[in-house]
Specification:
alpha/beta; 3-stranded antiparallel sheet; 12 helices; 10 strands; about 40% helix
Length: about 375
């Protein structure tokens, strides 16, 4: 059997189990899109867009250690470190690569890894590449320190991107051993949670904590970063292959991210965060009235767990008849039996947009 025959058999198997995915060809109407992670609407903010349009070059020219070094990267890193309350930060060209780089560079300095079972694929892939002995622990239930090996690398999200659950970073950090390191992925918390939107780890001053973040969600641009002790950032500049060998982020995007960060960390960010919370509370109340339990713990993410891929697809298609974009989330993104519609509310949704969503939800429920 040829490799293409194997490929076609795989596609047939995905199709038969309602797990085949396709990429939509057209852009979404932002008013009708309830799937975007652009939580604060920064990707369309006129100041952010203007900063991007003012670029004099399209690309960075190479890796940061070669021709790709630009002042915009440094300015962004200083601002990011202050925002999340860490000594220093390092920008990567994506959040995925930031996770690969940080976890891969830290792995030789520990003996074993622990990973929350709901972690994003970037953390899972990074840990697999390290070859460390690893324990996948039940969601938000890290084994007690007496049951753990010393020099452990603990990896978790702070606000989990699919179901919207969150962890309390302070007690988790308090449970660490003296030689442990805690890598927290703040991708979905940044911009929405903590002081000035600085995340759920912002208030925990502990040198054992290393923060992974993204520029592509609440900041509305592109890229990722790692923040932590200055010595850790220096290590990444030398040992993180996803940084050393990757072409640097275009300086125009770094500049746009700086503008977005200034807005998000200020009074406008406070206003937008409040608007997201109001929208999300309104949707949760409506779902409750429909007899649809919305999981999640506040914030922009409102998941509706429907069970099977077929049920999630049917619900998504019913919403689409009202022009609402809310794709079905199916395995392996979520565990089997937990296929869902994952709604995200944004600060640039209007009250009328949310009213339209509520009407579509009523229709889909029926």
């Amino acid at each position: 059997m040829s490799y293409l025959a194997n490929v076609r058999a795989r596609l047939d198997a995905l199709r038969d189990t309602s797990l085949l995915r396709t990429v939509r060809a057209s852009a979404n109407d932002p008013a009708r899109d309830f799937s975007s992670n652009d939580y604060l609407g920064m990707s369309r903010h006129p100041h952010v867009v203007a900063a991007l349009r003012a670029a004099s070059v399209a690309g960075s020219g190479g890796a940061r250690l070669l021709a790709g070094a630009h002042a915009e990267h440094v300015a962004l890193e200083v601002a990011l470190a202050a925002w999340v309350g860490r000594e220093a930060a390092l920008v990567f060209s994506s959040g995925y690569l930031a996770a690969l780089g940080a976890i891969g560079a830290l792995a030789p300095h520990v003996a074993v890894a622990y990973s929350d079972e709901r972690n994003h694929a970037c953390a899972i892939d990074a840990l697999r590449l390290t070859k460390l002995p690893r324990t996948i622990y039940p969601h938000r239930m890290l084994p007690q320190i007496a049951k753990r090996t010393s020099r452990a690398l603990v990896v978790t999200e702070t606000l989990f991107g699919m179901e919207g659950s969150r962890i309390d970073v302070a007690p988790l950090a308090a449970s660490l051993g003296a030689s442990d390191v805690l890598v927290v992925d703040e991708a979905h918390a940044l911009g929405l949670e903590g002081k000035h939107g600085g995340g759920l780890a912002r208030h925990v001053a502990d040198e054992r904590i290393v923060v992974i973040g993204t520029l592509s969600k609440a900041l509305g641009t592109l890229g990722g970063f790692v923040a932590g002790p200055r010595d850790v950032i220096s290590l990444l500049q030398n040992d993180a292959r996803a940084f050393v060998f990757d072409t640097a982020l275009p300086p125009a995007i770094a500049e746009a991210a700086c503008f977005a960060l200034a807005l998000v960390a200020g009074a406008e960010g406070d206003t937008r965060r409040a608007r997201v919370r109001t929208h999300a509370a309104r949707v949760r109340t409506h779902l409750g009235a429909l007899g649809l339990a919305a999981s999640g713990e506040g914030g922009a993410i409102v998941p509706i767990v429907l069970g099977t891929p077929e049920a999630a697809l049917a619900f998504s298609r019913a919403l689409a008849t009202f022009g609402i974009v809310a794709p079905a989330i199916r395995p392996p993104t979520v565990p089997r039996g937990e296929s869902m519609i994952r709604l995200t509310l944004r600060a640039d949704h209007t009250d009328a947009d949310v009213t339209d969503l509520l009407a579509a939800l009523t229709h889909a429920r029926a």
